[in-house]
């Protein structure tokens, strides 16, 4: 019996639109087609941007209370329909159903935080009389929305990462045009449905589906787009910065996250945290654990326990409640990971667990003895592979942690407060987790990295700061 496949429209300027050209969305586990969506053209993207600009100009800014109401409505809507959203996430992407449910919960929190931050967009008074001759001046500054935001989102968190762009944009009074990942557009479209249900004015949100090569440059370079918010790979991010021109740019470009395990750490707790951090979402996670540096005294114990825990993970059907690791997003990605592992082995690495591929599935893999120059040691693997290495000291672990062109998150496990603060001071990253793996984040905190990991910070409050400008107001009063 053939499953009925829906043709899902995209949201363009407040209208649900079908196009003559379409493309298919597949379940990466079965390669079964689950939906058809519009293959938008450059003309469609231009139209969406123009509609967004028109809505922004004509609205004279949506009142704060209304922005709060809309965002709260959508947050509640996600909770009420959480299983529907989770099944869409799990069907089109790599996440297990358990991981998908967690993402829906986080997306709802992101939007609720956005509603709360809308009321906190405040300025402050300025003491102009601090300058001699300005005694008769009084004024203040406040934040105002910049206009149209262009957002490009990845496949690995197809709902929450869209919410991290749409939530702050609407909270701050901007219009936004979203280009979701071509392999996972359904979650973004389903989120858009909730915003339309909430009564968001037409034009303030568009979700345009199609080819990144076809649509991305138009979204990035269009003069009516005042800011580009991009989450994705470093190569694509570099192209965005080259093409964007003089406009605001926010970028989260991934990482190669290190974790340091010191001899005084809770080893079993560290193993549990790092196994989860390395292999959740099939390793397709920008803050996932990729490199682990373990003090030599506890290295054998940590490695044995880590390998044992890794081998206990269940790889299989995403919809099975007992599954720990699902498929990668595409077979080509699993093949790439397989190739990187094989290259590392040729260069001297040893496979302590895993190293096996079956179609889109790549089994959780532990490598030891990976040389520093190997590609897998320097770049973001974005797959279920972790490297474990013994080090002589905290200082050596920190130095090796810093020897890549990424700096998003890091972790350190220790009971020594001085060691913690040494790592805090010397690790060149945007966030460091003490007695936790790099794979920890809440949606309110500033999120971003150093070096090749990006530009600026996400996290609702900090995204709002990027999506707004400050305006100074000064009154010159009549002298008495």
Automatic annotation (TrEMBL):
Top-level taxonomic group: Bacteria
Name of the protein this chain belongs to: 3-sulfolactaldehyde dehydrogenase
Known role: Part of the sulfo-TAL (or sulfo-SFT) pathway, a D-sulfoquinovose degradation pathway that produces sulfolactate (SL). Catalyzes the oxidation of 3-sulfolactaldehyde (SLA) to sulfolactate (SL).
Family affiliation: Belongs to the aldehyde dehydrogenase family.
Pfam families, per database record: Aldedh
UniProt EC number: 1.2.1.97
Molecular-function GO terms, alphabetical: lactaldehyde dehydrogenase (NAD+) activity
UniProt catalytic activity: (2S)-3-sulfolactaldehyde + NAD(+) + H2O = (2S)-3-sulfolactate + NADH + 2 H(+)
Ranges where the Aldehyde dehydrogenase domain occurs: 16-473
High-level lineage: Bacteria, Bacillati, Bacillota, Bacilli, Bacillales
């Amino acid at each position: 019996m053939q499953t009925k496949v829906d043709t899902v429209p995209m949201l363009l300027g407040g209208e649900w639109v079908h196009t003559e050209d379409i493309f298919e969305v597949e379940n990466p586990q079965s390669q079964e087609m689950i939906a058809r969506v519009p293959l938008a053209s450059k003309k469609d993207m231009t139209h969406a941007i123009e509609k967004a600009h028109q809505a922004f100009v004509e609205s004279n800014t949506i009142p704060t209370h209304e922005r709060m109401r809309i965002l709260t409505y959508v947050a509640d809507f996600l909770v009420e329909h959480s299983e529907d959203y989770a099944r869409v996430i799990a069907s089109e992407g790599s996440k297990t159903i358990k991981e998908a449910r967690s993402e829906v919960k986080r997306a709802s929190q992101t939007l609720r935080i956005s509603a709360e931050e809308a009321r906190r967009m405040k300025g402050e008074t300025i003491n102009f009389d601090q300058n001699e001759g300005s005694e008769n001046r009084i004024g203040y500054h406040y934040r105002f929305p910049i206009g149209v935001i262009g957002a490009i989102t990845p496949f690995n968190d197809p709902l929450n990462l869209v919410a991290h762009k749409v939530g702050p944009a609407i909270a701050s009074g901007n219009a936004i045009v979203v280009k979701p990942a071509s392999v996972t557009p359904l979650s973004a479209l389903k989120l858009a449905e909730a915003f339309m249900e909430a009564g968001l004015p037409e034009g303030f949100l568009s979700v345009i589906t199609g080819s990144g090569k076809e649509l991305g440059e138009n979204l990035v370079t269009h003069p009516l787009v005042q800011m580009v918010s991009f989450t994705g790979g470093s190569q694509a991010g570099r192209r965005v910065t080259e093409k964007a021109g003089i406009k605001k740019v926010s970028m989260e470009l991934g990482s190669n996250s290190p974790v340091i395990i010191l001899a005084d750490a809770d080893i079993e707790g560290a193993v549990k945290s790092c196994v989860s951090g390395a292999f959740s979402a099939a390793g397709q996670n920008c803050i996932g654990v990729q490199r682990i540096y373990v003090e030599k005294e506890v290295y054998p114990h940590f490695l044995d326990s880590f390998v044992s825990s890794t081998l206990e993970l269940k790889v299989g059907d995403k919809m099975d409640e007992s599954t720990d690791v699902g498929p990668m997003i595409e077979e080509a990605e699993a093949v790439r990971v397989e190739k990187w592992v094989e290259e590392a082995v040729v260069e001297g690495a040893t496979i302590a667990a895993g190293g096996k591929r079956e179609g889109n599935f790549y089994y959780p893999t532990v490598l030891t003895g990976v040389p520093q120059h190997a590609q897998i040691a320097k770049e973001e693997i974005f797959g279920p592979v972790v490297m474990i290495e013994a080090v002589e000291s905290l200082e050596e672990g920190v130095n090796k942690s810093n020897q890549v062109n990424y700096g998003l998150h890091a972790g350190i496990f220790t009971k020594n407060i001085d060691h913690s603060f040494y790592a805090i001071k010397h690790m060149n990253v945007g966030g460091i987790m003490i007695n936790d793996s790099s794979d920890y984040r809440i949606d309110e905190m500033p999120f971003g990295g150093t070096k090749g990991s990006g530009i600026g910070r996400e996290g609702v409050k900090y995204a709002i700061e990027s999506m707004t400008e400050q305006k100074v107001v000064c009154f010159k009063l009549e002298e008495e």
